[in-house]
Amino acid sequence: MQKKVPLRKCVITQEMKTKKELIRVVRTPDSEVVIDLNGKMNGRGAYLMKDVAVITKAKKKRTLDHHLKVKTTDELYDQLLEIAGGIHE
Protein backbone atom coordinates (compact mmCIF):
# COMPACT_ATOMS: atom_id res chain seq x y z
CA MET A 1 0.00 0.00 0.00
CA GLN A 2 1.30 3.46 -0.89
CA LYS A 3 1.87 5.90 1.96
CA LYS A 4 -0.37 8.97 1.97
CA VAL A 5 1.60 12.10 1.08
CA PRO A 6 0.77 14.95 3.47
CA LEU A 7 -0.48 18.08 1.74
CA ARG A 8 -0.24 21.68 2.91
CA LYS A 9 -2.15 24.75 1.79
CA CYS A 10 -0.47 27.79 0.24
CA VAL A 11 -1.63 30.92 2.13
CA ILE A 12 -1.91 32.88 -1.15
CA THR A 13 -3.38 30.50 -3.74
CA GLN A 14 -5.24 28.28 -1.22
CA GLU A 15 -4.02 25.28 -3.26
CA MET A 16 -3.12 22.03 -1.58
CA LYS A 17 0.45 20.98 -2.50
CA THR A 18 3.07 18.57 -1.23
CA LYS A 19 5.66 19.98 1.17
CA LYS A 20 8.33 19.80 -1.56
CA GLU A 21 6.43 22.32 -3.68
CA LEU A 22 6.10 24.83 -0.84
CA ILE A 23 8.34 27.01 1.32
CA ARG A 24 7.57 27.07 5.05
CA VAL A 25 7.95 30.31 6.98
CA VAL A 26 7.87 29.99 10.77
CA ARG A 27 7.28 32.32 13.67
CA THR A 28 9.37 30.78 16.41
CA PRO A 29 8.31 30.85 20.08
CA ASP A 30 10.66 33.89 20.43
CA SER A 31 8.59 35.74 17.78
CA GLU A 32 11.40 35.52 15.24
CA VAL A 33 10.36 34.90 11.64
CA VAL A 34 12.57 32.45 9.76
CA ILE A 35 12.43 30.37 6.60
CA ASP A 36 12.25 26.71 7.56
CA LEU A 37 13.90 24.74 4.77
CA ASN A 38 13.66 21.39 6.59
CA GLY A 39 10.04 21.78 7.68
CA LYS A 40 10.85 20.66 11.21
CA MET A 41 11.12 23.87 13.25
CA ASN A 42 8.92 24.64 16.22
CA GLY A 43 6.49 27.49 15.92
CA ARG A 44 3.58 28.70 13.85
CA GLY A 45 4.11 27.95 10.17
CA ALA A 46 2.71 29.33 6.94
CA TYR A 47 3.34 27.84 3.51
CA LEU A 48 3.96 29.66 0.24
CA MET A 49 4.31 28.14 -3.22
CA LYS A 50 7.81 28.26 -4.71
CA ASP A 51 6.57 30.76 -7.26
CA VAL A 52 7.88 34.29 -7.80
CA ALA A 53 4.41 35.68 -8.62
CA VAL A 54 2.92 34.16 -5.45
CA ILE A 55 5.71 35.51 -3.22
CA THR A 56 5.48 38.95 -4.84
CA LYS A 57 1.74 38.98 -4.12
CA ALA A 58 2.38 37.92 -0.51
CA LYS A 59 4.90 40.76 -0.14
CA LYS A 60 2.48 43.32 -1.57
CA LYS A 61 -0.41 42.19 0.64
CA ARG A 62 1.79 41.41 3.68
CA THR A 63 0.01 38.06 3.92
CA LEU A 64 2.60 36.50 6.24
CA ASP A 65 2.09 39.32 8.78
CA HIS A 66 -1.53 38.26 9.01
CA HIS A 67 -0.92 34.49 9.14
CA LEU A 68 2.02 34.56 11.55
CA LYS A 69 0.56 37.43 13.60
CA VAL A 70 3.87 39.31 13.58
CA LYS A 71 5.51 42.03 11.43
CA THR A 72 7.69 40.67 8.64
CA THR A 73 10.58 42.40 6.86
CA ASP A 74 11.28 43.03 3.19
CA GLU A 75 14.50 41.00 3.65
CA LEU A 76 12.38 37.94 4.45
CA TYR A 77 10.48 38.31 1.18
CA ASP A 78 13.75 38.89 -0.70
CA GLN A 79 15.11 35.61 0.72
CA LEU A 80 11.89 33.84 -0.30
CA LEU A 81 12.19 35.23 -3.84
CA GLU A 82 15.78 33.99 -3.99
CA ILE A 83 14.69 30.48 -2.94
CA ALA A 84 11.90 30.55 -5.54
CA GLY A 85 14.46 31.42 -8.19
CA GLY A 86 13.45 35.03 -8.59
CA ILE A 87 15.83 37.94 -8.88
CA HIS A 88 14.86 40.76 -6.55
CA GLU A 89 14.22 44.18 -8.04
From TrEMBL:
Residue stretches making up the YlxR domain: 8-80
Entry coiled-coil feature ranges: none
Protein's UniProt name: Molecular ruler co-factor for RNA new fold
Organism, scientific name: Exiguobacterium oxidotolerans
